[in-house]
Design a protein that fits this description.
The chain is built from three helices and no strands. The protein has 78 residues and is mainly alpha-helical.
Length: 78
């Protein structure tokens, strides 16, 4: 399970670098920070239950953040 966190970190790094190349600096910083966090957590050797619990917490926070941003911060297109 720790290896999957390192894989998540790798893909977040790839997405962050592509966003940086596309001049989307805030987006790239968000993904580069996530990449660093995933790689850091991947080397801490927690139990599988801890990794799954942390991933569920990460998903809950990201879904709430995405919903908040898309409902309250983005302008209505029509």
């Amino acid at each position: 399970m720790a290896r999957m966190y390192r894989v998540l970190g790798f893909w977040c790094l790839v997405i962050g670098l592509m966003a940086f190349a596309g001049h989307m600096y805030e987006f790239s910083l968000l993904f580069l920070a996530q990449a660093a966090a995933f790689v850091f957590l991947g080397y801490l050797k927690f139990s599988e239950k801890t990794y799954i619990t942390m991933f569920w917490g990460y998903m809950a926070i990201s879904f709430v953040g995405f919903t908040y941003w898309s409902v309250f911060k983005m302008s209505i297109p029509f």
